[in-house]
Amino acid sequence: MFGVIDLPTYLAGLVLIILLPGPNSLYVLSVAARRGVRAGYTAAAGVWGGDTVLMTLSAAGVASLLQANAVLFGIVKYAGAGYLTWLALGMLRAAWGMWRTRGERPADGEAPAPAEERPFRRAFVVSLFNPKAILFFVAFFVQFVDPGYAYPALSFVVLGVLAQVASVLYLSALIFGGTKLAAAFRRRRRLSAGATSAAGALFLGFAVKLSLTSA
Questions:
Q1: DSSP assigned state of 145
Q2: Contact 94, 113 (CB under 8 A)
Q3: Are 106 and 186 in contact (CB under 8 A)?
Q4: Given a cut of 50, is residue 108 above it in pLDDT?
Q5: 24-41, pLDDT tens digit by residue?
Q6: How far is 111 from 2, CA to CA, in rounded Å?
Q7: How far, CA to CA in Å, does 194 sit from each of 7, 45, 89, 98, 102?
Q8: Distance (Å) of CA 43 to CA 46, 117, 126, 134, 215
Q9: Which residues pair with 145 in a beta bridge?
């Protein structure tokens, strides 16, 4: 169908890949838990936008160029690791601010998130600066594209749409699951500070892991 081969295997692999924890899903869950459904979907939209760019670059062959050029790959890799580190430090600073004001009672509906946070932009950049994801997309997608099909771009579109649908379903589940924690976070700054600190620590771990990645 549309130059896609072995579709059941692709879907099975896609489910496993989507379920693997990563900085994208963690950030969406964190935003939804702290700020509610609307902010959660704003962050999710950033993830979907970043993934779309990565898939497009992969289909265009940019991923193969990164894999073949160690210097270029290193630049993108360390840029991504640096951004994740910066984001982690921001989370840790926000958590410290929440901890300092833990004795104060927030106003109704107040979310304990920093006012300057931009969920879409942050999620988009986290998703975009992920060279391992680019290499993964090209290595995974190519296996399911019929080399003899006349319109390979259409095959990539079909595979990409399926990947995005799976991502929408998964992130939606995280968003609505996370909002169950939102009320508790808004009432208890200690809980919110602890969760934000944990997220920041995990993002530091993602940054270290990314910096050690090889092409």
A1: B
A2: yes
A3: yes
A4: no
A5: 888 888 888 777 889 899
A6: 46
A7: 42, 26, 14, 9, 11
A8: 5, 11, 10, 20, 28
A9: 4
